[in-house]
Amino acid sequence: MANVDYIEMKLPAKSDYVSVARLTTSGIANRMGFDYEAIEDLKVAISEASTNVVNHAYDENEKGEIILGFSIYDDRLEVMVSDRGESFDLNEVKNNLGPIDHVKKTDDLREGGFGLFLINALMDKVEVNNNYGVIVHMIKYLNGVEVTNSDKAKTK
Predict the structure, then answer these.
(1) Could you report the per-residue pLDDT of 12-49, keeping only the tens digit for each?
(2) Which domain covers residue 146, as residue numbers?
(3) What residues contact residue 17 under an 8 Å CB cut-off, 6+ apart?
């Protein structure tokens, strides 16, 4: 069984608190030994996922929460960003992601789905569950690449 520490925090689903999620992520990743570029990738991904909660999960009059969970392993950081708000049609979002047309200006890109596109590009593994609210589960490996047990055995 791998050694794992778990940190969970709940923040009000307000844009003012996205920076708290970003700073917490930076502190944890720095403590784990991630390099500067990986820490920046993590901060952007967690910021995007948290901003999606703020902008899309709850009605204006509803007091919602961003729920963050950090599972700290020896070789990776797993982050869960979730809410209990309105779910979305995951297949519809995936279909609208598509490849980016490099001829278009960035101002012309579709607004919806770009956050998920960024998260997928920056993290090593991303899973989205939208059965009740939305859970975005992201993994970033410490060395940037997932290493299987058979690969570890070969290096010894």
Answers:
(1) 999 899 999 999 999 999 999 999 999 999 999 999 99
(2) 5-155
(3) 11, 50, 66
Task: Show the CA angle centred on residue 55, arms to residues 128 and 132, nearest 5°.
Answer: 40
Residue 146 confidence class, pLDDT cut points 50, 70, 90: low
Phi, psi (deg, nearest 5) at residue 95: -65, -30
d(CA 55, CA 146): 32
pLDDT tens per residue across span 118-128? 888 899 998 88
Q: How are beta strands 76-83 and 125-129 bridged, if at all?
A: unpaired
Encoding tokens for residue 119? 């998260």
149 backbone φψ class: left, alpha, beta (φ>0; ψ -120 to 50): alpha
From its phi and psi, is residue 87 left (phi > 0), alpha (psi between -120 and 50) or beta? Answer: beta
The alpha carbons of the chain give a radius of gyration, in whole angstroms, of 17
Distance from the Cα of residue 18 to its chain's centroid: 12
Closest to 136 measured CA to CA, from 83, 62, 57, 85:
83
CATH of the domain at 44: 3.30.565.10
**Count of structural domains, the chain:** 1
